[in-house]
Write a structure and sequence with these properties.
Rossmann fold, flat, Ribosomal Protein S5, domain 2, 24 strands, alpha+beta, nine-stranded mixed sheet, single chain
Length: about 650
């Protein structure tokens, strides 16, 4: 520690900045909405609509209308009770102004106004107001229409009566602030997926989405709720039972509903929700569901004498029960305790016991009444048990051969010298030719190259035993060093950038999709934690006046050609192997010049559906998907 004299006059009480009101939100927006990119922007829309959903869960709203205007404005209207307009006794301003300008202010901290709600921290709508260039609120309540406007969180008019109304409800209209956000264009696909999800979770709630940009109107309304949801998720699969199991129990302080079935896939798809919030990491409600499922199925297997070849009390392990399981677990409670700010995992301990009791009673009763369903489910679990035991033997064999060991690397891997995973990149390259160019053009210190010979196995149609027998997949597992499936450990990952680099043609797209399917199904943390990227090699090289320019898509090419006066040469790259090592390095691999796209799976249900359609057994859904989206495809060779 230095003994030099410090000038303390430079650091006085006046140096401590106090951020009043919503000023703190504008100063550090990422603390409240996660980021200022498109995800943070979409979060604003969800914060507003969640208020309407809370009204629906409280039984006061059955219609929500969302309008996306052509200048990035968004409005959300509901027919709920309307934000209170009377004067707050302590603050001396209207309830509307309190809700829109005060952090940690809301009607959701006790059980009087809302028995359950998604917005628990009271910051949602006030944060939207703070991060909007302008916001307008209209409240229909007690026969009158009230209106107030704001600019960057500050009121620009008082709450005033502007007319009369024969209904109740709230409309929020706002424009995101371009000073805050990297983009002010909402992700329509993301929002529509969320609207669909909310409509499934709140049966008989209608959500109308009006897109003024392309003049389309979409209605989301599901009278069957999550019973329809589970059928929608499995619409392209054969399921057991044909009508999914549905369980519901409700009392004054707790609501639980579960819908589930089994399909022919090799993975598990359990989606859980608390007060309409997606708990992507599960929690106590999922633990209770799984515990009940294991106990009931094993109990019925014993009664039906399926365990005669074993002396064990339980015939099936949790892994046997999980294979092919597709479920929605939806609960509502007043004071949910979430682990982490992202609300990813429910922590209330009593929920596990409540869900376990409910599912055990109802599912056991159902199987007693329907022994044929019990037999089909047990036999499905027996198939999973046999596959698991075969996969375990395959894993043991592979371990003995060191394929799952991070210390023995495949011979075709050109590794980098850097040993810190945070500074290391792995390029998964299509073909030996491109692999050779990539090896010559790489930065040997930080960039490793793994060439693939042909296409890897389609894991969507294969069990783990078969997957572990595929040579290309074994090489990939060994190179990554983090294992696969239940043995996957992200802490052992040898590279924190895994870059898929394939040709811009049909085969390249197929290889890329096969790799993403493997990562999504058996190495999901790679995607979830942002380690997977897709390289964007140029499609064309334009030579004019002896100067080379690289173009990455057809639209960019047209713009480029319009700027050229005179003769030029145009080269179309059909494959990575057509580029020299220097060209590949400069355009696609050098961090200073390249463009790489991070792979994200924010919407797990939608992502799962896409992989099932594109890589699953049924041809018809894939054909329909291609026909529907064919006009969106560019840069594909015929």
């Amino acid at each position: 520690m230095s003994n030099e004299k410090v000038n303390t006059k430079d650091y006085m009480a006046s140096s401590i900045k106090v951020l009043e009101g919503l000023e703190a939100v504008r100063k550090r927006p990422a603390m409240y909405i996660g980021s200022t990119d498109s995800r943070g922007l979409n979060h604003l829309a969800l914060e507003v609509i969640d208020n309407s959903i809370d009204e629906a869960m409280a039984g006061h709203c059955d219609k929500v209308r969302v309008v996306l205007w052509d200048d990035d404005q968004l409005s959300i209207e509901d027919n709920g009770r309307g934000i209170p307009v009377d004067i707050h006794p302590q603050l001396g301003i209207s309830g509307v102004e309190v809700a829109l300008t005060k952090l940690h202010a809301g009607g959701k901290f006790d059980a009087k106004s809302y028995k359950v709600s998604g917005g628990l921290h009271g910051v949602g709508i006030s944060v939207v107001n703070a991060l909007a260039e302008w916001l307008e609120v209209e409240v229909c309540r007690d026969g009158k229409v009230y209106f107030q406007s704001f600019c960057r969180g500050e009121p620009t008019s008082p709450l005033e009566i502007k007319g009369e109304s024969d209904h109740n409800g709230t409309t929020i209209k706002f424009k995101p602030d371009a000073e805050i956000f990297e983009t002010t264009s909402f992700d329509v696909a993301f929002l529509m997926n969320r609207f669909k999800e909310l409509a499934f979770l709140n049966k008989k709630l209608e959500i109308e989405f009006i897109n003024k940009v392309n003049d389309t109107v979409t209605h989301f309304f599901y009278e069957g709720g999550i019973q329809e949801y589970i059928l929608h998720i499995n619409k392209d699969k054969k399921i057991i039972p044909e009508q999914p199991v549905y369980i519901m129990r409700q009392d004054d302080d707790f609501f639980a509903e579960i819908a589930f079935c089994y399909n022919s896939s090799f993975g598990e798809s359990v989606y859980s929700y608390v007060n309409s919030i997606h708990t992507r990491d599960g929690g106590t409600h999922v633990y209770g569901f799984r515990a009940a499922l294991i106990n009931v199925i094993n109990e019925k297997a014993i009664l039906l004498k399926y365990n005669k070849e074993t002396n064990k009390k339980d015939l099936f392990s949790s892994d046997d029960i999980k294979e092919g399981l597709s479920a929605i677990v939806n609960v509502r409670l007043h004071d949910p305790q979430f682990e982490g700010q992202t609300k990813g995992r429910l922590g209330n301990s009593f929920v596990k016991k409540r869900v376990d009791e409910i599912v055990s009673q109802e599912f056991s009763f159902l199987l007693d009444k329907n022994p044929d369903i019990a037999k089909k489910i047990i036999e499905r679990c027996l198939v999973a048990k046999e596959a698991r035991e075969a996969a375990a033997k395959a894993k043991d064999l592979i371990r003995r051969k060191s394929f799952l060991s991070s210390t023995v690397l495949p011979g075709k891997l050109a590794d980098c010298s850097e040993r810190n995973p945070e500074n290391s990149e792995l390029f998964i390259v299509e073909g030996d030719s491109a692999g050779g160019s990539a090896k010559q053009g790489r930065d040997r210190r930080t960039q490793a190259i793994l060439p693939l010979r042909g296409k890897i196995l389609n894991v969507e149609k294969s069990n783990l035993d078969k997957i572990l027998g595929n040579e290309e997949i074994k090489a990939l597992i060994a190179a990554l060093g983090s294992g696969i499936d239940k043995d996957f450990d992200v802490k052992k990952l040898r590279y924190h950038k895994i870059i898929i680099m394939t040709d811009a043609d049909v085969d390249g797209s197929h290889i890329r999709t096969l790799l993403l399917t493997l990562f999504f199904r058996y190495m999901f943390p790679l995607i979830d934690q942002g380690f997977v990227y897709i390289a964007q090699p140029p499609l064309y090289m334009v030579t004019h006046n002896r100067k080379e320019s690289y173009v990455y898509n057809d639209r960019e090419l047209q713009r480029k050609l319009k700027t050229i006066d005179g003769k030029y040469e145009l080269q179309r790259y059909k494959g990575l192997g057509e580029m020299s090592a220097d060209q590949l390095s400069r355009t696609t691999m050098n961090p200073e010049n390249r463009v790489i796209l991070k792979v994200r799976a924010d919407e797990l249900v939608a992502s799962n559906e896409i992989f099932t359609i594109l890589m699953g057994e049924k041809v018809q859904p894939r054909k329909e998907f291609i026909q529907k989206h064919a006009h969106e495809v560019a840069n594909i060779d015929i």
